[in-house]
């Protein structure tokens, strides 16, 4: 037994410390295409006090520490390339308080979003951020997760009211309060949300929740061009219709879903929409949306209120990644994203499709058209050096295009390792300010080193 493992076992217990090969391998990867790297040991704390003790020990001995939720990240955020300790928060998975009157919930970081929503449903509430995977809420805050509902409810950072954070030296602090707003001090919630475990470990989260909408309606609308689809959404947003979800899937991706899932969707640029509200309000929204989209060139639009019918409408969007994976056995999916001003979105999607065809790789493109964020799903044989090189060329081309339009290299997947090399180009002097913050809060560079910023 190494000294590190022995010391951690004394701090915790033997059941909370693992060097099992399977456990180490599990914690050396995420859902991405990035290279696997295992930690030396994985620990499973049960309390804030134990997390504080682990970090205090690691800081004193300059041992790298990587926080871990469920490993659903897409840019190697949780892969410990520097080795050391991985802190898995699976045992810190309690819902501590539900406050319906305040529309708040207090949870530990290991609670998943579906677990939370199951508990909230009993109170007529739901948690709005849906990144697709059943990620832990701690991981979602760490990556500032978002998803299909962002256009209505905002990103993860918008839901954070307070965080209990353990800093690199073991100090425990809070970043906010229960108040709905504050003009006091620096905005620490915003600093730590999206910090990807590089500034501290979250041990308690106070999050905003919402009332379950009285009625939900879904729609699928087809257009001849991506430009028409984007313009239609822009018009709908400009007049204030409260769309809860709006997703754009390009023509080739619809064709892929039809081939794989034996669907019969029109093979045209397609919008998938969802509306939340009361019955009378939704009726007006549907009528106005139909009028606006028809004026923008919509070829057909179909609305559904029944749950089964709504789910069917969304199948093309939800099944897209799986259809590519199952149609390309032996290949790994590279999932990347960028975000641009909405006015630049159609051009960015066209550019991405052209670049994908130019490198000759199979892939799909879909976007959260309401906020200018889109994803490229690229199938890559990781054993083929040429394909790996081409996929990286493609990724770089769409990132540089986004930056040239004053966008960002990632709208929701985060930086991790995959987008770290673009940070200085995107942020300029602000990147150097980020490095100063990192050095101030983590002077020994033990917290998820090498992610987001690289310090000297």
TrEMBL record:
Alphabetical GO biological process terms: lactate catabolic process
Superkingdom to which the source organism belongs: Bacteria
GO molecular function: D-lactate dehydrogenase (cytochrome) activity; D-lactate dehydrogenase (NAD+) activity; FAD binding
Annotated keywords: FAD, Flavoprotein, Oxidoreductase, Transit peptide
Enzyme nomenclature, EC number: 1.1.2.4
Cofactor(s) named in the record: FAD
FAD-binding PCMH-type domain span: 35-212
Gene3D superfamilies, per the entry: 3.30.465.10, 3.30.70.2740, Vanillyl-alcohol Oxidase, Chain A, domain 4 (1.10.45.10)
Enzyme class, first EC level, given as a word: oxidoreductase
PANTHER family: D-LACTATE DEHYDROGENASE, D-LACTATE DEHYDROGENASE, MITOCHONDRIAL-RELATED
Recorded family membership: Belongs to the FAD-binding oxidoreductase/transferase type 4 family.
The protein's name in its UniProt record: D-lactate dehydrogenase (cytochrome)
Source organism per UniProt: Savagea serpentis
């Amino acid at each position: 037994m190494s000294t590190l493992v022995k010391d951690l076992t004394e701090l915790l217990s033997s059941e909370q410390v693992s060097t099992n090969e399977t456990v180490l391998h599990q914690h050396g990867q995420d859902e991405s295409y990035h290279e696997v790297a295992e930690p030396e040991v994985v620990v499973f704390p049960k309390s804030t006090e134990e997390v504080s003790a682990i970090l205090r020990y690691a800081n004193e001995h300059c041992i790298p520490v990587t926080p871990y939720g469920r490993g659903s990240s897409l840019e190697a955020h949780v892969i410990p390339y520097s080795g050391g300790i991985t802190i898995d928060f699976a045992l810190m998975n309690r819902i501590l308080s539900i406050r319906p009157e305040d529309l708040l919930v207090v949870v530990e970081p290991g609670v998943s979003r579906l677990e939370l929503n199951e508990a909230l449903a009993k109170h007529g509430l739901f948690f709005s951020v849906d990144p697709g995977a059943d990620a832990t809420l701690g991981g979602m805050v760490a990556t500032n997760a978002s998803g299909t509902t962002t256009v209505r409810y905002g990103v993860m950072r918008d839901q954070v009211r307070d965080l209990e954070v353990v800093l690199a030296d073991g100090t425990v602090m809070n970043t906010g309060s229960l108040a709905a707003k504050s003009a006091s001090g620096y905005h620490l919630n915003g600093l730590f949300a999206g910090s990807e475990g590089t500034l501290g470990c979250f041990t308690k989260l106070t999050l905003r929740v919402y009332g379950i909408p009285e009625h939900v309606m879904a729609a699928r609308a087809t257009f001849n061009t991506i430009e028409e689809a984007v313009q239609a959404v822009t018009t709908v947003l400009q007049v204030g219709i409260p769309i809860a979800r709006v997703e754009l899937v390009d023509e080739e991706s619809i064709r892929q879903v039809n081939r794989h899932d034996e669907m019969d969707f029109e093979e045209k640029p397609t919008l998938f929409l969802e509306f939340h509200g009361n019955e009378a309000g939704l009726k007006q929204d549907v009528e106005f949306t139909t009028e606006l989209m028809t004026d923008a060139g919509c070829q057909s639009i179909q609305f559904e209120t029944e749950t089964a019918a709504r789910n069917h409408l969304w199948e093309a969007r939800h099944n897209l990644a799986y259809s590519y994976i199952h149609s390309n056995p032996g290949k790994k999916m590279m999932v990347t994203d960028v975000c641009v001003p909405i006015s630049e979105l159609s051009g960015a999607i066209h550019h991405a499709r052209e670049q994908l065809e130019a490198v000759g790789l199979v892939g799909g493109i879909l976007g959260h058209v309401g906020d200018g964020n889109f994803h490229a799903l690229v199938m890559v044989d990781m054993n083929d050096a040429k394909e790996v090189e081409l996929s990286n060329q493609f990724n770089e081309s769409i990132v540089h295009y986004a930056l040239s339009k004053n966008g960002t290299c990632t709208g929701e997947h985060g930086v991790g390792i995959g987008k770290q090399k673009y940070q200085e180009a995107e942020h300029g002097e602000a990147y150097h300010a980020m490095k100063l913050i990192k050095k101030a809060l983590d002077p020994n560079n033990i917290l998820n080193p090498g992610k987001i910023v690289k310090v000297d």
